[in-house]
Amino acid sequence: MDLFGKAKAVRLRSCHDKYLMAHPDGESVWQGRDGTSPNAVWTVESVPYKNAIRLRSCFGKYLTASDDIVLLGVAGRRVTQTSAALVPDYSLIEWEPVRDGVEVKLRTATGHFLRANGGLPPVRNSVTHDIPRRSITQECVLWDVEPADSVNIKQQQQQLLDDEFPTLESLMSSHRVSSEEGREEAGRPNQRLIYYSVMDGKGNVVAKKRCFWFTGTEVGELKQKLAKETGLRDFIVCLRNPFDGKLDSLKLYLPPNNDVMRVLVVPSASKAAKYTR
């Protein structure tokens, strides 16, 4: 915790001399060299009664250790940005700083570490969380902490972020739930949590992300559920590729293991639908 000190905001620089960046899509994170960008600045929030912090992006969302698979054959799980209102388990956005000399490791509640990946595309510049097994990859979980308190953020812009993406503290104070309800929402047997957003004809997200529990395994079943949720009839269900930002359409079956999914509902007649893969 001492490396973060009393800093209200920080930049995290990886072993590849790149910064942890919040993607403009409001969901993904990656590594980039532009440390002057507001996307590289993370607001630090201490977790009460724990040796842990939360990191909030310039889009008002929290750095999250999700259970999503990045790519088949790629070690580690996906790291994302998540609105406090959509966090299924608050431990997913809590990171324990572990000092290693002048650098720091950020450990999740499950013992994984925030990892900056190198190598060849599409893995290069990605950010995941796992436990590095080989000595050659140990440095991938080390981060330099740079205070960023001097970054000027307009009050009106910050107020807009606070209104659209409430902090975890404000969310908890306005929505108190019992421990029994919390355990129920943390997971349901044989179901997966589906987050979805709706795009317009130009490819812009026009409906805020919502979610529901889903028991099916086929894309056709998911489309029927989404049709009831959105009122749309002719659309494509897509996933956004975390590495190139492009849209990949779902074909027949959903991924196994009931992992949490974040999908985009794309009208078939839209411009964005023409560029799906």
UniProtKB/TrEMBL annotation:
Residues 1-143, 191-266 form the DUF569 domain. It comes from the Eukaryota. This is DUF569 domain-containing protein.
